[in-house]
Specification:
By secondary structure, the chain is mainly α. The chain has 20 helices and 2 strands.
Length: about 450
């Protein structure tokens, strides 16, 4: 009954058995570059184009029930229905008003009111095995929120007609499409809908080979994550789960050198993690003829914080730009726009004080300092004066050595950001002082 209600992760054998001292539950929940959504590669070629959307919806619901159970799937479908009904109501309201400001604000409030309780929901079979962070980010509600907000925004702007034929089925597949349900990447509704509507045109030997190549690259990255990061370091210290909550929970009694090492490894692992997931999702969808935009561009090589956020989680950045930065007044006030972007990003991960206040303030300071630094050197480069010459001579700006220094600096700010966002219960308040020996 637990398996039917809560999915395969509720299997008792996953909780009690170990493989080479690693809990089976930990191995089973480690995300791979390929998931049950790959079954769509067998389904889509056998369907006519008109039946593809319906086939993928039923396949996705099957995958959701198998992996997460009837209860979670039922909650998800209820939320989808509520969002769709809201889209219809806000669409009519916006047309009557001739403006979308208030309807869009109502959409934001409604969706995030639905989202907030998920942070404190852990189903009974997973007590002690799954944290609230995993429930939100590992099981998919986080990306459901991004897609729902975007859909409502487009409905308020009259760029989507929620009263059109098959509007609900189009919206539902956008939300539950299983290959990209858990971890994204985020994709705009009209782009995704058009890809599904024409996917049969792109099913070819070349795309199938290219898709499997991307999946293989993702699998290799996950093998590296498992054998280079998890087994010798994280599992060695019983830091299980994708967010390793025990690392933060035990920080007050850990050695500072150990904490620095683990935070460096955490930053490297999560960067590779997002890249590997993106490879798998892009590959699985490409085999079905559905093109998904790139989501990672080696952010570790970013030389400043602005470049880092252009390379990291690219499609989430597109959402934050379109749905947060501009509506928050980014054109008129960049400072307010940037603050709102990172405050919402922090909330999207976990609604703690450090995530929604300390994290955006840190990023805002870094943004302003980076822009001032670049502007200073641009002025002197235009003048070609002694200061510009000295900057080149001492590798302060515009040289390979200054670029390396920038990469090191950005990496360390990423480590600090991780503390504020992924330390779900302490927000870095315990770990950060301990890392400096306090």
């Amino acid at each position: 009954m637990d398996i039917l209600l809560y999915g395969v992760f509720a299997l008792d054998v996953l909780k009690v058995m170990h493989l080479t001292n690693i809990p089976i539950h930990e191995i089973a929940r480690t995300p791979f570059a390929i998931n049950l959504g790959i079954l769509g590669a067998l389904l889509v070629p056998r369907l006519v184009q008109a039946k593809v959307r319906g086939g993928l919806i039923w396949l996705s619901l099957f995958c959701l029930i198998v992996m997460t159970g009837i209860i979670f799937t039922g909650i998800l479908l209820t939320a989808c229905l509520m969002v769709f009904v809201l889209a219809r109501a806000l669409h009519r309201w916006s047309l009557r008003r001739g403006r979308s400001g208030l309807p869009l604000l109502a959409a934001w409030i409604a969706v995030n009111i639905l989202y907030f309780p998920i942070f404190y929901l852990v189903f009974p079979p997973f007590e002690g095995f799954m944290t609230v962070g995993e429930m939100v980010l590992f099981w998919g509600p986080a990306f459901v929120v991004l897609r729902s907000v975007h859909y409502l925004h487009m409905a308020c702007k009259d760029r989507i007609d929620p009263f059109a034929d098959e509007a609900f089925s189009r919206f539902l597949l956008y939300i539950v499409h299983f290959p990209s349900f858990w971890f994204g990447p985020y994709q705009k509704f009209r782009q995704f809908d058009n890809e599904v509507s024409t996917c049969k045109q792109r099913i070819s030997r070349e795309n199938t080979i290219a898709g499997w190549k991307r999946i293989a690259i993702g699998v290799v990255k996950f093998i590296v994550i498992f054998h280079v990061f998890n087994v010798p370091f994280f599992y060695e210290y019983n830091y299980y789960g994708p967010f390793s909550d025990a690392l933060f929970a035990n920080a007050s009694t850990s050695d500072p050198a150990h904490l620095w090492l683990m935070m460096y490894l955490f930053a490297l692992r999560i960067t590779l993690f997002i890249s590997a997931l993106s490879d798998g999702v892009i590959g699985m969808n490409l085999i079905m003829g559905i093109r998904v935009p790139e989501n990672s561009n080696w952010p570790l090589f970013a030389r400043d914080i602005l470049e880092f956020w252009r390379r990291w989680h690219i499609q989430a950045g597109v959402f934050l730009r379109d749905e947060v930065f501009f509506p928050a007044g980014g054109r008129r006030s960049r400072i307010l726009g940037f603050f709102c972007v990172f405050a919402y990003s922090g909330f999207w991960h976990f609604p703690s004080i450090t995530a929604v206040l300390a994290f955006p303030l840190l990023q805002l300071v870094l943004f302003q300092a980076t822009q001032a630094w670049d502007a200073f050197w641009q002025v002197h480069e235009n003048k070609d004066d002694r200061i510009h010459a000295a900057g080149k001579r001492f590798h302060l700006h515009g040289t390979w050595l200054s670029g390396v220094a920038g990469m090191i600096f950005v990496f360390h700010t990423n480590v600090l950001s991780i503390l504020f966002i992924h330390d779900h219960f302490f927000g870095g308040s315990t770990m950060l002082p301990r890392m400096f020996g306090w």
